[in-house]
Specification:
This protein is an alpha+beta fold. The chain folds into 2 domains: 1-61, 2,3-Dihydroxybiphenyl 1,2-Dioxygenase, domain 1; 72-141, 2,3-Dihydroxybiphenyl 1,2-Dioxygenase, domain 1. It has helices spanning 15-24, 52-59, 81-93; strands at 7-12, 29-30, 37-42, 45-51, 73-76, 96-103, 109-114, 120-125, 130-131, 137-138. Strands 1-4-3-2 form a 4-stranded mixed β-sheet. The protein has a 4-stranded mixed β-sheet with strand order 5-8-7-6, with helices on one face. It has a two-stranded antiparallel sheet with strand order 9-10. Strand 3 (37-42) and strand 4 form a beta hairpin. It is globular. The mean pLDDT is 88.
Length: 141
């Protein structure tokens, strides 16, 4: 298996509500002809939104689970100050702020928000991670 992730699909309770939330963050929808699913190009990856019920059914797992699945999504910023800016944008779009922008134990700056389905996003600036012009992350050796 080659080392890459192309699409992250978020199982959501209300597709229209979630689409509006991510559009309020400034994300632009792609492949608008697709029905019942929403796609957003995010640098070199795609984030898709799909019915949580349909995603569970398609994946052969129960739709209701124990809650937090031990997964967060991360958005890296270009500057330390951008962490607070992005968290404020998310809050205006309808997110619940879980942790305000603050110094991180690993030397950067970070905070957390939950989207309307309580999918948890980390917003982080890491002085050791460089973002390319297209928003891709370059990991140091």
């Amino acid at each position: 298996m080659e080392q890459r992730v192309i699409i992250i699909t978020l199982g959501v309770a209300d597709l229209d509500r979630s689409r509006k939330f991510y559009e309020a963050l400034g994300w632009t929808r792609g492949f608008k002809k697709a029905e019942g699913v929403v796609f957003f190009k995010t640098g070199s990856m795609i984030v898709s939104l799909w019915s949580r019920t349909e995603l569970a059914k398609d994946s052969s797992v129960p739709v209701s689970g124990p809650g937090f699945a031990g997964v967060t999504l991360a958005y890296n910023t270009r500057t330390k100050d951008d962490v607070a800016v992005v968290l404020a944008e998310a809050e205006r779009a309808g997110a619940k702020i879980l942790k305000t922008a603050q110094p991180a134990f690993w030397g950067g700056h970070y905070g957390f928000f939950a989207d309307p389905d309580w999918l948890v996003w980390e917003v982080a600036w890491n002085p050791g991670f460089m973002l390319t012009a297209d928003g891709s992350l370059h990991l140091p050796d």
